[in-house]
Amino acid sequence: MRNRTPLDEVPSLAKKWCAMLGLDVEATFEPSGNELLFPNRLSLSGQDSSLLLAGKPQALDSLQYLLHEAQGEKEESKMVYLDVQGTRLFRMRELVAMANLAAKKARAAGSFVFSSLTPKERRWVHLIIGGEPDLETASEGTGALKSLRVSRRA
Questions:
Q1: How many domains does the chain have?
Q2: Are residues 37 and 80 in the same domain?
Q3: Which domain holds residue 63?
């Protein structure tokens, strides 16, 4: 059986791995305000943290993937989720507002379609709309970026 890194040790592991890459980064847990959508938010800060966002956030996603592997955890509520400069927290809040608007539009018009959402973004919308008894969601398309339809239940 392989060793698992406990959640409380993940910040020091993230900092250590970043240091091995030559990045001066601090890692601290900060609440997201919505633990269902964004649990265990590990905020990365410091003079080099913005380098993890350079271009597209593939470096941040890769580090998060490696930390998930180190945790050996499959339950989302126990896994760490990385954020730099509040960019992912801002996106979560933006999608909450967009999902609420989509719910209103779906009730009025029958459906509303989000285009090109990442898997994490689609999950957030599914969770938000999932609490609405008169609405349902469905991902559409292929690949990593899919659209998501919000519809009135039949």
A1: 2
A2: yes
A3: 7-85
Per-residue pLDDT of the chain (154 residues; tens, 9 = 90+): 467 999 999 999 999 999 999 999 999 999 999 999 999 999 999 999 999 998 778 899 999 999 999 999 888 889 999 999 999 999 999 999 999 999 999 999 999 999 989 888 999 999 999 999 999 999 999 888 899 999 999 8
Order of all β-strands in the sheet with 111-117? 111-117, 146-152, 135-140
pTM: 0.87
Distance from C-alpha of 93 to C-alpha of 101, rounded to nearest angstrom:
13
Token pair 């990442």 in the structure block, residue: 118
For residue 83, the SS3 value is strand
**Domain CATH code at residue 31:** 3.30.300
CA angle (150 as vertex; 147, 154 as ends), nearest 5: 130
